[in-house]
Design goal:
Blueprint: E1 2-8, E2 13-19, E3 23-27, H1 34-43, E4 46-51, H2 63-70, E5 73-77, E6 87-89, E7 94-96, E8 101-106, E9 115-120, E10 126-132, E11 135-136, E12 139-140, H3 151-168, E13 174-177, H4 197-203, H5 205-208, H6 211-221, H7 229-238, H8 253-261, E14 265-268, H9 272-277, E15 284-285, H10 292-299, E16 306-310, H11 313-324, E17 333-336, H12 339-342, E18 352-354, H13 356-364, H14 366-369, E19 373-376, H15 380-384, E20 392-393, H16 396-399, E21 411-414, H17 419-430, E22 435-438
Helix pairs in contact: 3-6
Amino acid sequence: MEVVTIETTSLGDRSYLATDGTTAVVVDPQRDIDRVLDLLARLDVRLTHVVETHVHNDYVTGGLDLASRTGAHYVLPEHSHVEFEHTEVADGDVLDAGGFTVRALHTPGHTHHHTSYALVGAAGAVEAVFTGGSMLYGSTGRTDLVSAETTVELTHAQFRSARRLVAELPAETAVYPTHGFGSFCSATPTTGDASTIGEQAATNPALTQDEQTYVDTLLSGLDAFPAYYAHMGPTNRRGPDPVDLSMPEPVEPGELRRRIDGGQWVVDLRDRKAFAAGHLAGSHGFELSGNFVTYLGWLYHYGTPLTLIGESEEQIRTARRELVRIGVDHLAGSATGDVETLADGQPLRSYRVSDFAGLAERTARADELGPVQVLDARRNDERARGAVPGSLHVPLHQLQERLDEVPTGEVWVYCGSGYRASVAASILDRAGREVVLVDDSFEGRS
């Protein structure tokens, strides 16, 4: 048996293709299924089943589209409450994939219906288990995505599910989780890039702590999760439309200005330093890098017309691929090229970029230059581990609604690495504020 990982680093998730060289099963595929189709063609294997561990809350699935295009069975756990035809599995059900089988193991916790899948080879031995949002590497999935009312119940269930996997599967069984590589679906930080049931038995909190300690620790570590999650479950239950990765329609410079003035979202994908050096007044700055889709999805108001600005068509296409993963399918258009040309004769906005050394120098001259206003855009859990003394804390996802709390005058804004600070700086800039972006790592500072 071979298990191939299909990584989606921007969302901290993994999908998997398991094959015996003739037939294959795919687990938790992302929306952009061209990656899976290309892999099937390269391996020259036939897809028999597409299986979901649960109805996902952090991305739009590609499972329905993939099964439709390949003729594979589309498998979901019972009580998933989806609105389309599918194959339903209950605890203990076995799927025959030809030369191997897949056995369903009900592992509630991340959701009520969550199910893991044990991969059983031709010789009858369990070779791997796909654990979705249940057992992660050194952690477990978060339990508060269904409702506040069921969080404690699901946390206890998550504890028991992890213990069930250890009790029923061989220690050498390879563990393949969907979440836990930066995904907000992880309850606490994960560790490592591969593991086995035996290794998790020795290190995972659900297996090394007593039940109440585990529950208390998990609940205390839960913080805010991206607002776009509210759209993912309903979309996945309805059945997502087939994916569209085509290039958006081109937009002329004059039309860009009309869209900004009309309250539409015009998102600049360029490097954050390039955006700071010069950008269209009123545009949003979301550098196209690892955190792009998480934070744009978190702040974006679904349904608002969205136009992309990029340096090239390739940049636009990459952003479109990221956006369809969270159900932002309908782009109003795109524009590429030199930003001064796109400004259509209008003056560009800009602001300064510095680092923590620059902030220290500016603070030391407060008597001469006036007080320094510092804004911390990090999450609550990060803030609790240390902060710039005297800084105002407004997490990025709350900034738009709390702008009136930010003092007037020059504002220096920072986060953990510079990315969220750059988005926060663009929000402040759109409001006409004087801002300095601290593009630097906070690690080890206080």
